[in-house]
Write a structure and sequence with these properties.
Number of helices: 11
GO molecular function, one term: lipid binding
Number of strands: 13
Radius of gyration: 19 Å
Helix content: 40-55%
Strand order of the largest sheet: 10-9-8-13-11-12
Keywords: Lipid-binding
Largest sheet: 6 strands, mixed
Pfam family, one: DegV
Protein name: DegV family protein
Shape: globular
Organism: Bacillus salacetis
Number of domains: 2
Order of helices and strands: EHEEEHEHEHEHHEHHEEHEHEHE
CATH topology of the largest domain: Hypothetical Protein Tm841, Chain: A,domain 3
CATH architecture of the largest domain: 2-Layer Sandwich
Distance between the termini: 22 Å
Length: 281
C-alpha cells in the first residue's frame, strides 16, 4: 500500500525537509490589514512580524476549508492508496475536524486523520516520523499506532513575552496584563488535554527559560535518545545562542531551531520562546 503524508502549515517544517520526506502541506491563513495570506505560501514568518507592527488591529486566523482538503485528497488518490493527515491540536483549531469531514467525502483513497494534540515543529515530528515509516512500507494502521507511541514521550513549553498582546487578543484581562507587566511575569504555557493552559507563572524571561531547561533535563535523564526543537517568535539569534549552550550541555541530544509562524504568532505574540521534545524514534 502506498501511503501519502499530509500536515498543515502550523507544523512549520522547512521546505527542504518537506521535499526530502515528500510531506504534503495544507496552509492555514492569517488575516492582516484586511488581506488574507496563506502562511508558508503567501507570507513568511519574518514578513509577518514586520507587517504586524504597523497594524492597529490584531490579526485573525482561519483554517483550511473542507473543500481544500477534499481537493488535496482527491489529487493524492491518483497516486496513493492511503493518506495520513496530521494536524495541529483539535483543542485550538478546527483543522483536524476539517480533515475528518473531507476524509468521509472522498473516494478512492483511505484517509487517516491524526490529531497531534500540539502545534509548531513539535507537530512536525509526527509527519517526518510517519514519512520514514511509510517509505519502509509500514501499513497506515501501524504508522498511526507508532505515532501514538511517540506521543507518550512528547512535551512542549512556551513562554509568552508580551502580556499586552495576550490581553489584546482577549486571553488576559487588562488588570492582569498591567500587574503582570509590572512584575515582569512570564507565563509558562503547555498543552494539556489538547488546549493551551498555564503551567507556571515565572517572574523573568531568564528564569522562565531556565525552568524549561529543568523540565527538559528531567526527560533527558530517562536515558533514551531525544530530539529537541527550540521555537522562537522573531528571536532567531537568541534561539541559536540557546541551542549552542544546550548542545554543549547535552552532546548526545539532537537540537534544532524553528519558529512560531504567522498563525501561532498571532496568538502568542513576538518575543515568545518555546521548546519541545520527544523520544527519537
Amino acid at each position: 500500500m502506498k501511503t501519502a503524508i499530509v500536515t498543515d502549515s502550523t507544523a512549520y517544517i522547512p521546505n527542504e525537509l518537506r521535499d526530502q520526506y515528500d510531506i504534503k502541506m495544507i496552509p492555514l491563513s492569517v488575516i492582516l490589514g484586511g488581506e488574507s495570506y496563506r502562511e508558508e505560501v503567501d507570507i513568511s514568518a519574518s514578513d509577518f512580524y514586520q507587517e504586524v507592527k504597523h497594524e492597529e488591529k490584531l490579526p485573525t486566523t482561519s483554517q483550511p476549508s473542507v473543500g481544500s482538503f477534499v481537493e488535496l485528497y482527491e489529487d493524492l488518490a491518483k497516486e496513493y492508496d492511503a493518506v495520513i493527515s496530521i494536524h495541529l491540536s483539535s483543542g485550538i483549531s478546527g483543522t483536524y475536524q476539517g480533515a475528518v469531514q473531507a476524509g468521509d467525502m472522498v473516494e478512492g483513497i483511505q484517509v487517516y486523520p491524526y490529531d497531534s494534540e500540539i502545534s509548531c515543529m513539535v507537530q512536525g515530528f509526527y509527519p517526518i516520523y510517519a514519512s520514514k515509516l511509510a517509505s519502509e512500507g509500514v501499513e497506515p494502521e501501524e504508522i498511526v499506532q507508532k505515532l501514538d507511541e511517540m506521543k507518550e514521550t512528547v512535551s512542549a513549553y512556551f513562554m509568552v513575552d508580551d502580556l499586552a498582546h495576550l490581553q489584546r487578543g482577549g486571553r488576559l484581562s487588562a488588570a492582569q496584563a498591567i500587574i503582570g507587566s509590572l512584575l515582569q511575569v512570564k507565563p509558562l504555557l503547555h498543552f494539556q488535554e489538547k488546549v493551551i493552559v498555564p503551567f507556571e507563572k515565572i517572574r523573568t524571561r531568564k528564569k522562565a527559560m531556565k525552568r524549561i531547561v529543568e523540565l527538559l533535563d528531567n526527560d533527558i535523564q530517562k536515558g533514551y535518545p531525544m530530539q529537541v526543537v527550540i521555537i522562537h517568535a522573531n528571536r532567531e539569534e537568541e534561539a541559536e545562542k540557546w541551542k549552542e549552550e544546550l548542545e554543549e550541555k547535552y552532546p548526545d541530544t539532537d537540537f534544532s531551531v524553528s519558529y512560531f509562524g504567522p498563525v501561532i504568532g498571532t496568538h502568542l505574540g513576538e518575543g515568545s520562546m518555546g521548546m519541545g521534545w520527544s523520544r527519537k524514534m
